[in-house]
Design a protein that fits this description.
- The chain is α/β, with parallel strands linked by helices.
- The chain has helices spanning about 15-30, 50-55, 80-85, 95-100, 105-120, 130-135, 140-150, 180-200, 200-205, 215-225, 240-250; strands at about 5-10, 40, 60-65, 90-95, 125-130, 165, 210, 230-235.
- Strand 2 (about 40), helix 2 and strand 3 form a beta-alpha-beta unit.
- The longest helix has 19 residues, at about 180-200.
- The two termini are about 20 Å apart.
- The protein binds 2-phosphoglycolic acid.
Length: about 250
């Protein structure tokens, strides 16, 4: 089964609405007509409206970087699925390692966010990945299995249809270090196995697993040509239009 690759930009805490507009004015012409891969940009919440407006009628789709599990209420600073859907945002990153590291995200909160995002019809990108000490201790496999099984808990294959997973080794994020295509392939195979355990073989065969961690124009081809790598989640190298366009055209 061929899985269409996804090139997803994670802008983290970068860009104002004005800078978002400027980026899109330059980026859209660079990727016009590109249909081989799906293109998704995940800006900070305040830029979603601008991005949606600029992306209308183009091949660019819009995502958020997080979502809260409650529908509404006294939760100062939080954003619900309904708000994202209402803003015409279609994707959402869940459980990014920076959320886990700095904002107390756990496997269980990832599971709660994933469940509501799927329920709302969003396409979640669930991030998993080991830290350097875990890789060095030889427990990468255990970590990935645990993160996946806990994230997927209580969710059915039918419900998980729109889910994507991103393998992001934490030691490769923003460091310039990249997993070798072999390392990524091994991790992706393991994640696919774990998805098969929970959701069944048919589901696992169509699940798209992205690689993230210092993806740039120079290494995108080597990574994306791997059979197990179904796309990329890109931080730093997604902030400039020409750099992201080069990755899209890997
Ligand atoms: P990076 O970030 O491309 O800057 O390493 C990737 C990510 O955190 O999603």
């Amino acid at each position: 089964m061929s899985r269409k690759k996804i090139i997803a930009a994670n802008w983290k805490m970068y860009k104002t609405p004005g800078q978002t507009r400027q980026f899109m004015q330059e980026f859209i012409p660079l990727v016009a007509g590109h249909t081989r891969d799906q293109i998704v940009i995940c800006p900070p919440f305040v830029n979603i409206a601008t991005l949606v407006e600029m992306a209308e009628g183009t091949n660019v789709e819009v995502g958020a970087q997080n979502v809260f599990w409650e529908k509404e209420g006294a939760f100062t600073g939080e954003i619900s699925c309904e708000m994202l859907v209402g803003a015409k945002c279609e994707w959402v990153i869940i459980g990014h390692s920076e959320r886990r590291q700095y904002f107390g995200e756990t496997d269980d909160t990832v599971n709660r966010r994933l469940e509501v995002a799927l329920e709302a019809g969003l396409s979640p990108i669930v991030c998993v990945g080991e830290v350097k000490e875990e890789r060095e201790a030889g427990i990468t496999e255990d970590v990935l299995r645990r993160q996946c099984s806990r994230a997927f808990r209580g969710i059915s294959a039918r419900k998980a249809a729109k889910m994507t997973v991103a393998y992001e080794p934490v030691w490769a994020i923003g460091t310039g270090l990249t997993a070798t295509p072999e390392m990524a392939n091994d991790a992706h195979r393991l994640i696919r196995q774990e998805a098969a355990n929970v959701f069944g073989d048919d589901y696992a065969r169509q699940l798209r697993i992205l690689y993230g961690g210092s993806v740039k124009p120079e290494n995108a081809h080597n990574l994306l040509e791997q059979a197990e790598i179904d796309g990329a989640l890109i931080g730093g190298a997604s902030l400039k239009p020409d750099s992201l366009a080069k990755i899209v055209k890997w």
